[in-house]
Amino acid sequence: MVIVMAPGASDTDVDGVVTHIQAHGGQAFVSRGVMRTIVGVVGTEDVLETLDAAGLPGVVETMRITAPYKLVSAQNAGGAATRTTIRVGGVPIGPDTFTLIAGPCAVETPEQTLGAALMARRAGATLLRGGAYKPRTSPYAFQGLGEAGLRILAEIRDEVQLPIVTEVVDAADVDVVAEYADMLQIGTRNMQNFGLLQAVGRSGKPVMLKRGLTATYEEWLMAAEYIAQRGNLDIVLCERGVRSFEPAIRNMLDVSAVPMVQRLSHLPVIVDPSHAAGRRDLVVPLARAGIAAGADGVMVDVHPNPETALCDGAQALVGDVLDELAEAVATLPPLLGRTSAAHLAG
Amino acid sequence: MVIVMAPGASDTDVDGVVTHIQAHGGQAFVSRGVMRTIVGVVGTEDVLETLDAAGLPGVVETMRITAPYKLVSAQNAGGAATRTTIRVGGVPIGPDTFTLIAGPCAVETPEQTLGAALMARRAGATLLRGGAYKPRTSPYAFQGLGEAGLRILAEIRDEVQLPIVTEVVDAADVDVVAEYADMLQIGTRNMQNFGLLQAVGRSGKPVMLKRGLTATYEEWLMAAEYIAQRGNLDIVLCERGVRSFEPAIRNMLDVSAVPMVQRLSHLPVIVDPSHAAGRRDLVVPLARAGIAAGADGVMVDVHPNPETALCDGAQALVGDVLDELAEAVATLPPLLGRTSAAHLAG
Amino acid sequence: MVIVMAPGASDTDVDGVVTHIQAHGGQAFVSRGVMRTIVGVVGTEDVLETLDAAGLPGVVETMRITAPYKLVSAQNAGGAATRTTIRVGGVPIGPDTFTLIAGPCAVETPEQTLGAALMARRAGATLLRGGAYKPRTSPYAFQGLGEAGLRILAEIRDEVQLPIVTEVVDAADVDVVAEYADMLQIGTRNMQNFGLLQAVGRSGKPVMLKRGLTATYEEWLMAAEYIAQRGNLDIVLCERGVRSFEPAIRNMLDVSAVPMVQRLSHLPVIVDPSHAAGRRDLVVPLARAGIAAGADGVMVDVHPNPETALCDGAQALVGDVLDELAEAVATLPPLLGRTSAAHLAG
Amino acid sequence: MVIVMAPGASDTDVDGVVTHIQAHGGQAFVSRGVMRTIVGVVGTEDVLETLDAAGLPGVVETMRITAPYKLVSAQNAGGAATRTTIRVGGVPIGPDTFTLIAGPCAVETPEQTLGAALMARRAGATLLRGGAYKPRTSPYAFQGLGEAGLRILAEIRDEVQLPIVTEVVDAADVDVVAEYADMLQIGTRNMQNFGLLQAVGRSGKPVMLKRGLTATYEEWLMAAEYIAQRGNLDIVLCERGVRSFEPAIRNMLDVSAVPMVQRLSHLPVIVDPSHAAGRRDLVVPLARAGIAAGADGVMVDVHPNPETALCDGAQALVGDVLDELAEAVATLPPLLGRTSAAHLAG
Fold first, then answer.
1. Which of A216, A253, A258 sits opposite B256 (nearest CB)?
2. Which of B185, B245, C235, D63 has its CA 20 to 30 A from that of D94?
3. Does the keyword Transferase feature in the UniProt annotation (chains A, B, C, D) (predicted)?
């Protein structure tokens, strides 16, 4: 069961609901987002039937959710019509806008990061991505600059005025990453690292949750539920390609995930064509496909000198290809009734 | 090796090339399309090295092809820049246009087929699809009307003035289907039915070749090569979703296939979002994604009364959803530099 | 619904049942195997409810089958306890025995075929496999010797006294292949070539049906149902590996298929480790795994000179590796309560 | 590059090698196992060429490893012939023995754990498995007893005299779990949780590393390399089924993984048929298949009262089915030249 609080409900109202649930023998999970506060209730059939919370102060609605994920389910949002908009440092990601997120795969130097950030801004990006902690398949590959990378990102943010999205790979690092970042990213390999999900759920920062390599939609939403259950409803889902049998591509971008997950959940969904494709010449066609399928945003790698990149240079956009992406981002979303997030930041 | 003939090369020129190849100990495969005639050469390294066919009458160019598929390879077309345009009853499918193909999954009655054809035409379709021979997983399911269905299709073609695309499932039926149809379709389950591929290769009709359920790009192009090797280069490839681990969707539309196969081959590529999705509410987002990824056309199911359809009614477009598709087909392709095939037929 | 006839039921009895079904408005499909004759009934709920066939002469039992496949369902066999034994030229394949089938992937010459057949017999094989019609991904690869290959197989059969299993790839070839072969094989790529399935269903010969590359158990059994529906219940299912994401192996042998399909159907199930592995050093471990999982037989490629084989030489067993296989076939099945088919032929 | 130390090499010898490597500009990773100590070297081509470490005290051999995983590669073990044996509380897992690991999926109560442990021992198990920290797809599912569960496991170990294997899901928990456990298990969802891999690498305890849901063999071995790189070479790999398209089974046990990974790495490989199957009636056939494919051990779930289990009761063995497993474990490994680990513990 989920109890939806009114937009103006006070902390006292929320506490009252929690106390009421506990007095009836249930467990309460408060999840706060920019747009709504929701209280999830877990308990036996008896508890749920006798709860009768509809009349409590600040409560808008109570509803039984049949999906195994409760707090992130579209059922508690009145369906797709009221999907959620998340704000990251003032920049919206949601159903009415289109948000471009761009930046280097890995932060290497201040110069490279600034170069990439300027490229991102020129292409219409309103959020800057960049990795300081890099999960790599090989222990001998470049693992990122760690906190030094976070400091570079923060300096560039001040210079280019773009809020930053960066990955956190270990629960022990959540506090330090949250100090610098505007949005925390959970990578594909960590989608079911439940300790990490709970830690970012407690962090108070918006979270971007990438889909696991062969995660089903339900498993992906259950991972989001772990974050929401610890109090954080500001979650953006990111489709980045799934593992397939096809040897010619790195991953297979599952564009069906965009409309499907938007029907199942009220959370925004973006696509990452760079990591799906793994090669520059596929990024723009896949970005266009993601936008056309209804994605709320796109995240791409850019790099001023892809040939010397320490990580995934083959997929980083540069030059003409980046111009093509900028054009797609400018022209396609309006056809689908969206405003560019570029004009809405602040 | 592939020998490309000049647009105006005569049959005598082509015969001369074939004789020359055979005299040198090689095998020759002549493949004719609307836009070009190509002669494939198979032989030992010795044969290929001593062939020296560049100076023969009517020969434009000779080239070694490293891909295992020769006649359909992009290498013999000077790359993506000179991709092929196929014509079906005068309607183009190729890089400069965008072609909508629509119609009922299965032909049931003249009234239902006419109703669907009129819906198709109103939505902007320039080709009519419809199945008279249906390959079904169950031997107890409706297997199509057979030749009676072909006759209905032919009558409706005369009435609505749309050339027809219809599936052939058995080599023994190719002649009768080719009598009625403007384009022969090879279904997913038959992508490696090599006898059938060779039979449609000899038929002289344009062929639409659907991708197998987990066929790699290379296997798909090798299947096209079987058709081309029997003399027919008028082939359109159709991506229709691949089998995946995700239980919430019937098949996973692989939009990467569109730009990838357009790089590997000179043949047109379209997408079929209806059979990928298996449900009406996903068809338009997937159609948009396919168009945006660069497809040369889209094929969809329509039905005047989906709830009584004998085959795949759940995915047939109708009413508002069909209007949405029509709008996507009208607005997206021009953004990508394409003209609607509707204005070019004839 | 399925009507099971008594072992001694006469043709008149069967005709009586068919007439009775048709008189009640149903369709009847008679399917004959070595062990039983079954009549499938397709019709509306009304037809099935009023049929009342239990008392007709020769009828043992009538039962409603909930699986979409009727004639091949385990439900009509009283469960796994009464699984079917098929006989191929006198050699049994079924629950009480273990059958080794071996031979060359492709018939090349009489000498090579005889060499392979002698190797097969020494290793304990009681059936000889060999391909005269080869479905190949490339139109330029060796396509088999055709009827000349069948003649070689027939000669070698006389010489080594092993019944032969050989593939048929086109419905038009079924009659000629059935003239020579003791068992017809349907390959992976043709599992849903429904015209071919129906043709072998009418042939009166036992059929080996390989699983499609990503066919579900249900689709595989529906393909078997197509054969059974045309009158032929002597079908052996062959698991030969499925397509996967793992680049280090050609296909992934799905050993779960063996016990699962044995629960769903009364038909025998064997495994083909050679085509799954694609490399010699994996064949014996996979053969052992298949035997241990409960397979009713194993089919492997052998070749006297693998390095010169025209087809799949890399997976053909020879020398020590074949000896290892022979030992596995001799020692493992008795542990699982099976008798070697070698001692039961005739 | 990998430098193999002599069995009797002293710490001073190892330190000397490390100093030598660093003096030449390389990085050194010391990895210690029961059977060998290996020093991995990472550096530029120049460093590797000029290193010349073969003559240093205690060095047996230096070799260049072409695989991306170095310390766990079969290349540094002289091939499959010298595969490693790991010891867990005295119990061997390796090429000469066969080890059964059994116990409850989750520790629930002392009584349930004791019951399961006694069942395990009667079936021939020499190691006891049991989960105190359970990674669950749903945040609302039973998450394990935590340290209280570890204490139960430790008590039961004393009572039944079986060393214990238990999962650790968070790097922060490694110390406490290592205090109680004889072997640490890394679960499927955490195969690429690199912080956790490094933490167990530093723990000094043997590690069981389950394969990720669609991890390639190379990714799996790279995950093992993360553990080895932090100093720990006592690693056992566990195949537990991969995600597939087949809806009738939970996961598809990839038996090819056993011989393939044994060729690629010197580490032992076991299979977990319980989690692959997800249903009791498949566990024994799959266990037999794993043994026959050459696995060094099998791990299964048992439970005294499966119908009340808090986790995965449907797959827990009990009664006759457990007896069947015990028989398979007793009879199959000797056929393959293995001794039961039951007789070798101590």
1. A253
2. D63
3. yes
CA distance A44 to chain B (A): 28
Kindly determine whether residue A247 and residue C243, on different chains, have CB atoms separated by under 8 Å.
no
Q: Are B326 and B242 found together in one domain? A: yes
Q: Give me the residue from C172, C193, C219 closest to B137, CB to CB.
A: C219
pLDDT digit string, tens, across residues A116-147: 999 999 999 999 999 999 988 888 888 899 99
Contact D245 B244 (CB under 8 A): yes
C-beta atoms of C245 and A247 within 8 A: no
Average pLDDT over residues D225-253: 96
Same domain flag for C154 and C253: yes
For chain C, percent of residues with pLDDT exceeding 90: 73
Tokens 């006294």 belong to C161
The dihedral built from the CA positions of residue C186, C187, C192 and C193, taken in this order, carries a sign that is negative
Q: What per-residue confidence (pLDDT) applies to C99?
A: 97
- The residue among B64, B95, B110 that closes a domain is B64
Beta-bridge partner residues of D88 = D91
A59 and A96 share a domain?
A: no
Chain D interface mutation, best of A193, A217, A221, A243, highest count of D Cβ atoms under 10 Å: A193
pLDDT value of residue A140: 87
B291 and B146 housed in the same domain: yes
Q: Which residue of B has its CA nearest to C230?
A: B139
> How far, CA to CA in Å, does D303 sit from each of A75, D118, D297?
37, 10, 20
User: In the structure, what pLDDT confidence band is assigned to residue C342 with cuts at 50, 70 and 90?
Assistant: low
Is the residue at B220 inside a domain? yes
Task: Please answer yes or no on whether B193 and C189 come within 8 Å at the CB atom.
Answer: yes
Which two tokens mark A184? 């925390």
Query: Do B190 and B284 share a domain, yes or no?
Result: yes
Residues B261 and B184 in one domain: yes
Residue D81 lies inside a defined structural domain of this protein: no
User: Do B26 and B106 fall within a single domain?
Assistant: no
Cβ pair D245:B243 closer than 8 A? yes
User: What does the alpha-carbon distance between residue B192 and residue B207 come to, in Å, rounded to a whole number?
Assistant: 14
Q: Is B46 part of any domain?
A: yes
Give the number of domains in chain C. 2
Nearest by CB to residue A214, choosing from B218, B245, B260, is B245
Range of the domain at D227: 86-343
- Asked whether residue D223 is assigned to any structural domain, the reply reads yes
Q: Write down the ipTM of this complex.
A: 0.93
For residues D80-90, average pLDDT: 85
Please give the radius of gyration of chain C, using alpha carbons only, rounded to the nearest integer.
Answer: 20
CA separation for the pair D319, D329 (Å, rounded): 16
Torsion of CA B194, B200, B206, B207, to 10 degrees: -30
CATH number for the domain that contains residue D252: 3.20.20.70
pLDDT per residue over C107-129, tens digit each?
999 999 999 999 999 999 999 99
Structural domain ending residue among the three candidates D64, D94, D111 = D64
Q: In this structure, what CATH number is given to the domain that contains residue B42? A: 3.30.70.1140
- Same domain, yes or no, for D263 and D224? yes
Q: Calculate helix-pair angle for B280-292, A257-264, nearest 10 degrees.
A: 140
Nearest to B239 by CA among B189, B299, B198: B299
